[in-house]
Protein: Catalase
Amino acid sequence: MADEQNRPKDAKQRQRDEHRAADPESGPLTTDQGVVVDHTDDSLQAGERGPTLLEDFHFREKITRFDHERIPERVVHARGAGAYGYFEPYESCSRFTRAAFLQDPSVRTPVFVRFSTVQGPRGSADTVRDVRGFATKFFTSEGNYDLVGNNFPVFFIQDGIKFPDFVHAVKPEPHNEIPTGASAHDTLWDFVSLQPETLHTIMWLMSDRAIPRSFRMMQGFGVHTFRFVTADGHGTFVKFHWKPKLGVHSLVWDEAQECMGRDPDFNRRDLWDAIESGAYPEYELGVQLVSEEDEFAFDFDLLDATKIIPEEQVPVQPIGRMVLDRNPDNFFAETEQIAFHTANIVPGIDFTNDPLLQARNFSYLDTQLIRLGGPNFAQIPVNRPVAPVRTNHRDGFHQSAIHRGVSYTENSLTGGCPAIAGAGGEAFSHYAERVDGAKIRKRSPSFEDHYSQAALFWNSMSGWEREHIVQAFRFELGKVATMSVRERVVAELANVDAELTAAVAAGIGVATPPAAAGGGAAGGGASSGRAASPALSQENLPGDGSIRFRQIAVLVTDGVDADQIGRLKAALGGDGAVVEALAPQDGTVTASDGGDMPVDRALPTVASVLYDAVILPDGPAGALASAAEGAALRFVRDAYRHGKPVGALGSGVGTLAELEPGVRLAADSGGVEVDRGVITDRSTGGPSQEFHRAFASAVAAHRDRSRPSLRG
Structure:
C-alpha cells in the first residue's frame, strides 16, 4: 500500500527532473538548439541603418516561433535511413575554430546521421540514380550543430531562389505523376538544357557516384563554403568532407536497376544489418581551409555552390572520425522526425554569403515547421539538445515543456531570468564582416563560368567511369520525348568535351554540334587544357582494404565439402565478411561425408546483385549438380559481367569453366591463379592462405574494371 502511495510522488519528481533544463532561472538565454544568446533587442543587419539579414537565425527563430504558436498539420518527408553514433576529433582545432566539439580528442560528441535519396517519395527504391543526402546532427555541449550535406560536393544551382524551379523540374511530371524516383524525363532535362550552371552537378549525377553500393561506402560533403572562427574572432573559410573508411564504391547501372526489384531497401538494409552485426560504419571528417587573404586567389568564386576546390590546390586535412554504432528503436520517432537545419550552428562555425546557403538558412526551418507540425520540434527526443535550453518561447502544438514564470526579456519579476550572457565567453557571436553595396538582384560575374569544372570532372575520370557517364546520358536522354530538349542538352555538352558530346549524340539520335565535331570544347579552360583532379576518381578512393560486412555467396549442392565451407566462413568471416551458402533449394544439402549441411538461402530467392562476390567450392560432385542449373548459371554470369570477384576451389574450377567459358583458370598442377578478379585454385582442401589473401584483396577492391564484359 505504501508503494502505491509513493508512485505519484515519484512521477512528479521525474517530471520536475525532465523539465529542469527548461527552467528560465537556471542560466542565460539560449536558442531552441541550446546556443547561448548575448543580444535579443536588435536584429542582425547590414550596417546600423541597413536591411535585416536573412542569416540572423536568432531573430528568425524568435519571430517564427511567435508566428507559429498556432500551427498547420504535419506533412510527411522524403525517404531516408538513419543511425546514431559518435564523433571524436584527432586533436585540438583551436588554431582555426573555437567550436568546443573540435577541441578535446578524449570527448566523444553524440551524433545522429540521416542518409536519404532526394527525388523520390518514401515508397521509392534505394538504388535509383539520384543525389544522396548525408546529414549529421552533432549534439554538442554548446548546442546542436547540423552539417547538412550530400554525397556530391556541388549542387545544381547557384542561388536558392531557383530551388523551387529545380525541384519542380526533377519531380514526377505534373500531368501523370511519372516517373517515381527517377530523373530520366523531359522536365528535368528541359531545365538542365536552359540552365548551364547545372552541368557540373549533372556530370556527377551521370557518374556512378549517383548509385552508391552502400551508405557505408559513400562520401559526404558540406557543399558550401562555411567559416571557422577562433576564440579571438579570426575567420577561415572551410569546406567539409566525409570520407568512408571502406572506400568509395558504387553499383553499376544494370545492378542498380535489378536491385530495385530484388530488394528496393538495399542500402537501408545494408546499413541496418551492418550496425546490428557490429560492423560499424566509420567516416573521417576532413576540411579544406582557405585564409581570408586568399578568398579571390582561385579562378572560381568560393561562394559558388556549383564549384569545388580541387584537392590538388587545397589538400583535405583530416580532423576527426565518426562511428555509427546504434540503430534507431523506432523509424518514425527518430529517423522520420529528425530535423536538420543548415542554420543550426555553434560558436566557432559561421556562414558565408553563398546565396544558396543563405536561402537554405531560411528554407529548412520553414520546412520543419510544416513537416513536424509546429515550432516545438526541437523538443522531440531525437532533436533535443544535450545543452540546456532556456527560452521565452511558449505554447504551440506539441509543447511538452512545463514553463513557469514570465516569458519576456527584460523582466524584473523572475530576477531578470533568463539573463542575457555577457559579450564573448560562451555566447554565440556572429562573425563581424563588412557589408556594403546597393540592394539589387544581380549575380556576381565571378559565378559565370559554368563549364570549366564540368570539364575538370570529365577529364579526371578513368576510362570505365567515362564509359558509364556516356551510357547514363544515353539512358536518361533516350527517355526524353522532346527532341529539341535532347538537342539543347547535347549542345551544352559541347562546352564540356568533344568526345563526350559525340558519344552521347550518337546514342540518342541527334546531330553532333559543330563545336564538338571540330574536336574541341567551346568552354575552354579545364577542357581545352585537359586539367584533371585525380582525387575525383573513384579509382583513387579504394579505402582501407577492409571487407567488413561484404556479402559473399558460396554456391553449394549435394556432395559439397562441408568442412571447406566451414573454413571459408571462418576465414572470410574473421575478416568481417558475411559468407552465405546458397543452394538450389532451402533447408540442407547432403555433404560429401554424408551429413546434412545447413543452407543459408535458396538461390531462387536471391541474386548476384545482392552480393559482392561469389565462390564455387570443392566437392566430389562439384559445387553444382549441373552447369545448366538456371539460377546458378545466371548468378555466376552476372557476377562476372559486373566485375565482381569470383573464386573457385578444387572441382569448383571446372564448374566455373562450364558456367563462364573463357575465364582464365588455375593450371592442372594446382596453385592459386589470379586474373582480372577471378581467383582459382585446383588443389583440394583449403582454402589456402594464398587464396584467402587474394580473394579478400579482390573483395576489398570491390570489382575488377578490366573485364571486357563489364558494362554499365
Notes: The domain at 76-372 is CATH 2.40.180.10 (Catalase HpII,  Chain A, domain 1).
